[in-house]
Amino acid sequence: MAQVKVFYDKEGNTLTVWFSDPKEEYVCEETGEEVVLMKDKSGRVIGFEKLNYSLSEAEKLHVAFETVAA
After folding, report:
1. pTM of the full predicted structure?
2. Cβ 3 vs Cβ 46: under 8 Å
3. I want to staple 26 with a disulfide (CB 3.0 to 4.6 A). Which of 13, 41, 50, 63 is the partner?
4. pLDDT tens per residue across span 20-34
């Protein structure tokens, strides 16, 4: 089973999500919507980073996952 890793950087105001091993990152691509896609050597998206992401002190980061049939 694959792991999804979610990191919130309060000081840097970023939310980073990895679908695969971060060590496999080969290139990054900006989408123009304050989102950076991290890709492996084959061009497959293995993660993304949302720039200028912040939560107030009262908010909590909730992460939910849902599987879909292929």
Report:
1. 0.84
2. no
3. 41
4. 999 999 999 999 899
